[in-house]
Amino acid sequence: MIEIRCMTLADVPFGMYLKEQAGWNQTETDWRRFLALEPDGCFLAEVDGEPAGTLTTCVFGSVAWIAMVLVEEARRGQGIATALLKHAIAYLDARGVPTVRLDATPLGRPVYQKLGFADEYTLTRYGGTPAPVPELGPVRAYTPGDLEQVAWLDRQVTGTDRKKLLKRLLAEEPQTVRVLETRGQVSGYCALRPGTKATQIGPCVASSPNAGQRLLADAITRCAGKPVMLDVPETNEAAIAFIQGTDLEVQRPFVRMYRGIPPVDEVNGIWASSGPEKG
After folding, report:
1. pLDDT per residue as tens digits for the range 224-266
2. Fewer CB within 10 A of the terminal residue: the chain, N end or C end?
3. 140-158 residue pLDDT tens
4. Are residues 162 and 247 in the same domain?
5. At 76, is the secondary structure helix, strand, or coil?
6. Could you tell me if 36 and 91 lie in one domain?
7. What's the gap between Cα 47 and its chain centre?
8. What Å distances lie between residue 231 and 76, 95, 187, 249, 273, CA to CA?
């Protein structure tokens, strides 16, 4: 029998065990962030009293994200992921959230389709150990005083008020974050996040192709000689062209999906997603 309860900090080691089975990149810090941002919306499935799967949600006003849908290998095919998803959807429906989004692997996509999720667009994960790329223009270090402008720009591009995520994420590794200013206003930002396998480049949001190129060039050069990964919307042709001009290689696709009211974002402003967890 499948039973679902709220996930707690005591369950983080099991979450790490599942993500290692799946070969994903998240750290304990990531799990703790998920739980802090939505303590009542992160779930663990148990079968006969034993932990078997996880799922996290995060509500940003009218938009919510589902992520970390993981099932223990020996338990797959028993309906655990579907049970977790139905539980999460009921939770978000009860919260009155009109739009639910997620980034699906090819394996998970059919499960989501059966629950009413539709395709938006594809993201491509690029990875490798990059060499430095030529500087395209100066960027500067982020300061906490930039948060309001960064959050405003992010909201214009993503169509979602992710300030609570950005406040925590940028405070965790502030020394890795860069911003670009145009006439005294933030016109782009880019963060780096440590992972167990590689540094995740993103989120990287920019108001113009020039800003996006400058920020990614800076990020890649700062990570030169170390494993990195980043997720780029295929519809952002300028971003794809820039990445293809580096020595990073395609690793796998994700399909961004939604349920409910179709979301509205400016995909050409997304130069690197924050990852499959929060868009």
Report:
1. 999 999 999 999 999 999 999 999 999 999 999 999 999 999 9
2. N
3. 999 999 999 999 999 999 9
4. yes
5. coil
6. yes
7. 28
8. 26, 29, 20, 11, 5
Q: Are 33 and 169 in contact (CB under 8 A)?
A: yes
Report the CATH number that the domain containing residue 181 is assigned in CATH. Answer: 3.40.630.90
- Residues across the chain: 279
Instruction: Give the range of the structural domain holding residue 48, as residue numbers without chain letter.
Output: 2-97
Shared-domain flag, residues 73 and 148: no
User: Does residue 188 form part of some domain?
Assistant: yes
Query: Max Cα separation, the chain?
Result: 60
What is the spatial distance between Cα 45 and Cα 52, in angstroms, rounded to a whole number?
6
User: CB under 8 Å, gap of 24 or more: what pairs does 182-188 form?
Assistant: 182/207, 182/211, 185/149, 186/146, 186/149, 186/150, 186/152, 186/153, 187/153, 187/211, 188/139, 188/153, 188/212, 188/214, 188/215, 188/271
Does an H or E element contain 69, and which?
A: strand 63-71
Q: Rounded to an integer, what distance in angstroms lies between the CA atom of residue 50 and that of residue 267?
A: 41
Does some domain include residue 112?
no
- N- to C-terminal Cα separation, the chain: 33
Tokens of 258: 């939604």
* Cα separation, 269 vs 249, whole angstroms: 22
Residue 208 predicted with pLDDT over 90: yes
Q: Is the pLDDT of residue 95 over 90?
A: yes
Structural domains in the chain (count)? 2
